[in-house]
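Quick one: examine this chain and its C-alpha cells and tell me how the chain folds. Here goes:
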Amino acid sequence: MADDAFLFLLPDRHPRLGTALAAAGDLECVETPAVHGWLRAHDVSESSEEVRILPAEAEAFIPEGAERLPIPLSEDEALRVQQECSPRTVTDMESELLDFRDTTQDWEALVHRALAAGISAPRIARLTGLDPQDIGRLGV
C-alpha cells in the first residue's frame, strides 16, 4: 500500500470537495493510531462532514492551508473512494432516492415484526438508525 488518498478538513464556507470520510465506508486506515491521533488533534470525529477524503491524484484540489493527512488504501478501498468522489448525475441521485424509498417503504412492518420477535426497541434503533421515538410509537 502507498499513500493513495488524503484526509483533510474542509475549511468553513468552502464548497464541498471529495466525499465525507463516513461516506467512503469502512476503511482499514481509519482504525490506525495515525488517523485516530489526527482526528483527536483536530477535535473532530470520523463521522463529521468536515472530514473529507480525496484520491491522491486530486491532491491539488485540497484547499491551501487545509489540514491534511496522507493515508494508504487497499485497491478496493481506493476504487470506492474514487467512485464516491466522482460527480453524480441527477439521474443517478434520483435513482438512489427511489431505491431508498423502496427499501424503507415497509419499515414500520419490519419494526413490528422485530418487536414481536423480541428484539428490544433500543437494539432496533441501533441496527436501523431509526429514531427511537418512532420505534416507541409503533410498540407492540
Remarks:
- Residues 91-137 form one domain.
